[in-house]
Amino acid sequence: MNGSARINLSSASVLVVDYNMQSVELLCGVLDGFGMRKFRRATSVEEAKEACGDSVYDLILTDAQMPGVDGYEFIRWLRRSPEEQTRLTPAIVVTAHTRRSQVTKARDCGANFIVAKPLTPKIILERIIWVAQSTRMFIETETFIGPDRRFRKSGPPAEFGTGRRREDIEAAEAAETPEDSATEATSQETMA
C-alpha cells in the first residue's frame, strides 16, 4: 500500500461479532485507530442477526468459531437475507485456524476474506481496503451466494502487499539454498 495514500474511514459502519468481549473491544480499538467511529458489537450470532435487522453496515467482521452457531453459518445466513443491502455487505472472517479446510469453509459460506489471528493492524487495514476496492462480482446461484470465488491465481491486488507474517518469511529464507542466493545476486547485478 502506498505510504502517502490517505483513506477516510470515519463514516464507515462496522458490525464486529465475537463471543469474547475482550476480542471485540480489541478489534474495535484497532478500527478506531483507523478513524472508524460507527461500531456495533455482538457477542453471538443471534445478536448479530438482530443488528442486521436494525441497520445496514459497510463491513462485518466475525469470528469463525463461536459457541452454538458459528461465524460461517452467520455469513451463510447473511448471504441469503431478503434485504439486498444486507446480503451484499462485505464480510471478513477472523479465525485462529487457517487450515485449508477452514479457508475453504470461509470461501464457500460467502465470506469476502479470511484473516488469521493473531491480528495486526496492518493486516486488518490492508484487508479492509482490499475488500472495499474489490471488483469481484457477486454471484447468486442455487448453491452459492457471495463474491466470485474464482480469483485464486490473482489474489489480493499487488498494491496492498501480502503482509507476510514473520513465520512465512523465516520459512522462505530457510528454504533458500546458497545457490539460490548466488543466482539471485547475479541476476540483480545483471539488471543493474
List the helices and strands and how they pair.
Elements: E1 13-17, H1 21-33, E2 38-42, H2 45-54, E3 59-63, H3 71-79, H4 84-87, E4 91-95, H5 100-109, E5 113-116, H6 121-133, E6 138-140, E7 145-147, H7 166-175, H8 178-191
The percent range for strand residues is: 15-25%
Helix fraction bin: 40-55%
Uncertain stretches of 5 or more adjacent residues: 159-166, 176-192
Q: Main β-sheet: number of strands, strand sense, barrel status? A: 5 strands, parallel
Number of strands: 7
Structural class per helix/strand content?
alpha/beta
Sequence of secondary-structure elements: EHEHEHHEHEHEEHH
Mean pLDDT: 79
Q: Please report the distance between the alpha carbons of the first and last residues.
A: 25 Å
Spatial shape: globular
> How many helix segments?
8
Query: Can you list the strand order of the major beta sheet?
Result: 2-1-3-4-5
Gyration radius (Cα, Å) is 19 Å
Plain-language structure description:
The chain has 192 residues and is an alpha/beta fold. The protein is built from 8 helices and 7 strands, in the order βαβαβααβαβαββαα. β4 (91-95), α5 (100-109) and β5 form a beta-alpha-beta unit. Residues 159-166 and 176-192 have low confidence and may be disordered. The chain has a 5-stranded parallel sheet, sandwiched between helices. It is globular.
